[in-house]
């Protein structure tokens, strides 16, 4: 059972998310909070696996909350779900430890998929957030330089990828979800996941964010 905490200053939004998530098998909403201060107290009581966090809230905003969660409750996977796609929030949240960033105009299926994937340790970026990340990387490559792991030495670079793996990698770097990649390439989502895992292993990278940064540098 994936335990989820909802953090949003709009009660209507929290109610809608609760109704949407509670009908999903294997997901339980264990608490709600209207700001970061309340959220920290809820985390101590409810011990969620995933926190859906709005970026802009009174008393303590989402970026500060996520930074606190990363330091005090590193087992909680924080996903930003917001209307704001500004660099301040996207990069602030990712630096703070967020493992997901979605805009509120995404589909309910996208939210459910993000909850499931982040609970498994994956990273989820909506297309706007991924595009901002790549654009920022192109403008300022040095601060986001991703060191290669020891396993990535000895020629195990992008050239080691198959043509299909390279197609998948490029779409991941562009912010596409597994579902979007599957539809575009006419393959199953399971096959997409296998390709992504293979790409990360061959390049010695941890997650989709590092993959996006790595390919942008190339």
Report the uncertain regions: 141-156
Quaternary class: single chain
> How large, in whole angstroms, is the Cα Rg?
17 Å
Q: What strand order characterises the main sheet?
A: 2-1-3-4-5-6
Termini separation comes to 40 Å
What is the number of helical segments per DSSP (H or I, 4+ residues)? 10
SSE order: EHEHEHEHEHEHHHHH
In percent, how helical is the residue content?
A: 40-55%
- Please report the total strand number as a whole number: 6
Strand-residue proportion: 5-15%
Description:
- This protein has helices at residues 11-22, 36-46, 62-72, 87-96, 108-119, 127-139, 163-173, 178-185, 189-203, 208-217, and strands at 2-7, 27-33, 50-53, 77-82, 100-103, 124-125.
- The chain starts with a strand and ends with a helix.
- Strands 2-1-3-4-5-6 form a 6-stranded parallel beta sheet, with helices on both faces.
- The chain is built from 10 helices and 6 strands, in the order βαβαβαβαβαβααααα.
Give keywords:
218 residues, six-stranded parallel β-sheet, alpha/beta, 13% strand, 10 helices
């Amino acid at each position: 059972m994936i335990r989820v905490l909802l953090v949003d200053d709009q009660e209507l939004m929290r109610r809608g998310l609760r109704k949407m998530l509670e009908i999903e098998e294997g997901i339980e909403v264990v608490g709600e909070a209207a700001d970061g201060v309340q959220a920290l107290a809820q985390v101590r009581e409810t011990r969620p696996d995933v926190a859906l966090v709005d970026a802009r809230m009174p008393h303590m905003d989402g970026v500060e909350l996520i930074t606190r969660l990363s330091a005090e409750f590193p087992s909680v996977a924080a996903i930003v779900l917001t209307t704001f796609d500004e660099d301040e929030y996207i990069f602030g949240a990712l630096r703070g430890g967020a493992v997901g960033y979605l805009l509120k105009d995404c589909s309910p299926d996208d939210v459910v998929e993000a909850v499931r994937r982040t609970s498994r340790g994956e990273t989820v970026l909506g297309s706007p957030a991924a595009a901002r990340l790549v654009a920022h990387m192109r403008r300022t490559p040095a601060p986001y330089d991703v060191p290669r792991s020891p396993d990535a030495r000895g020629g195990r670079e992008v050239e080691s990828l198959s043509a299909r793996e390279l197609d998948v990698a490029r779409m991941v770097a562009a912010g596409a979800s597994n579902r979007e990649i599957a539809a575009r390439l006419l393959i199953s989502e399971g096959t997409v996941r296998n390709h992504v895992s293979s790409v990360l292993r061959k390049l010695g990278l941890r997650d989709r964010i590092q993959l996006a940064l790595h390919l942008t540098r190339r």
